[in-house]
Amino acid sequence: MLETPILSTDIDYNNVYDPAEDTFLLMDALESEHNKGQYDLERSTLSLEIGSGSGMISSFIIKHKIFGENNYHLSSDINPLAIKETLKTIKLNGVGRNDVLLMSLLDSVRDGSIDYLVFNPPYVPSDDVPILSDEDRLSVALEGGKNGMEITNLLIEQLSMKLSTEGCAYILFCASNKPLEYKESISDMYNMELIEKRKCGWEVLSIYKITRK
Amino acid sequence: MKLLTTNFIKCSVKACDASVSSFPLKYDNQCEIELNYEEDESIIEKSYQFLVGILDKIDWNALLKVCADLGNNDLPPNKPVLTQDSLLSLNDNEKLILKQLFNLLINTEIVNGSMKCDSCGHVYMIKNGIPNLLLPPHLS
């Protein structure tokens, strides 16, 4: 088992998502992918975590060189308070080639550049997709609109343009996102492979690896 | 923001996606730069494989442009030709190139300043080393 990154004791959990079962499941999935040895590449790669929040998962990727020795990792969030915590957590957990940015989904990414994308989206079904405001910075990390899929849908629309030739995305789904139906609906363009699945309290969470067809 | 990152980001405005002038962004010549140059060859050597590999991913013309924006015109006009095999027998000139690349891409940070899209003119700020590529509501 790879060591879990440490978090500073003063993280502002009123404004930044507190790592929970979904965070740990995603790290476990990345660890099992890492252990398959498929990332020990000679070529250099670029990874990006969208919605890095507290920085737990990005620190895990950097600290354990999850995507190999020759990777450059970017962490992004739309919440300025979250990106500050991401940076703090990454620094706390040691050194590695990485950078952080404020960005929405893949809006500002150069086409064809991402080798590994990691995303724990706001997946909880809600009436509307919340808007980030000074009064509420947490809902955007949780609520995903209809079926909890509105944000994931937007990302998938951008994905094929932004991935490198052999690029892939690791994305978390909950049962209400109906991942199997979704897999079918995007099957013209993408393969979706189950990497990890776990019952967490009243939720069933799964991590899928998505690649271009 | 590390200089390497400038090679992977473009304007966030959807209407600029089709425009070649939305990448790279145009960096203000008043940007505050922090140089943390590494002189210890043994540290740089650990990144040789990464540097040679990342050259494949780098858009060299974009890198030249960003460096020129920031007042650095020292880069060779063409991307250096280096392969993983050439790492087995590097000459002094190649070692120097790798050292320069390491210090430029990884150890040069834009701490404060701004960057602009040549297509739509939108200006993005960089504060405390963090670039802000978010758009105001009317543009997103």
UniProtKB/TrEMBL annotation, chain A:
TM stretches of this protein: none
A GO CC term attached to the entry: eRF1 methyltransferase complex
Example GO BP: ribosomal large subunit biogenesis
Methyltransferase found in the keyword field: yes
MF term (GO), any: S-adenosylmethionine-dependent methyltransferase activity
Keywords: Methyltransferase, S-adenosyl-L-methionine, Transferase
Entry keyword Transferase: yes
Ranges of residues in domain Methyltransferase small: 44-124
Superkingdom as given in the UniProt entry: Eukaryota
InterPro entries linked to this entry: DNA_methylase_N6_adenine_CS, Euk-Arch_PrmC-MTase, SAM-dependent_MTases_sf, Small_mtfrase_dom
PANTHER family: METHYLTRANSFERASE N6AMT1 (PTHR45875:SF1)
Family: Belongs to the eukaryotic/archaeal PrmC-related family.
Protein name according to UniProt: Related to eRF1 methyltransferase catalytic subunit MTQ2
Species per Swiss-Prot/TrEMBL record: Hanseniaspora guilliermondii
Taxonomic path: Eukaryota, Fungi, Dikarya, Ascomycota, Saccharomycotina
TrEMBL record, chain B:
Keyword Transferase part of the UniProt annotation: yes
Keywords per UniProt: Methyltransferase, Transferase
GO CC terms in record: eRF1 methyltransferase complex; tRNA (m2G10) methyltransferase complex
Pfam families: Trm112p
GO biological process, one term: maturation of SSU-rRNA
InterPro entries: Trm112 (IPR039127), Trm112-like (IPR005651)
Similarity comment text for this entry: Belongs to the TRM112 family.
Protein's name in the database: Related to Multifunctional methyltransferase subunit TRM112
Organism field: Hanseniaspora guilliermondii
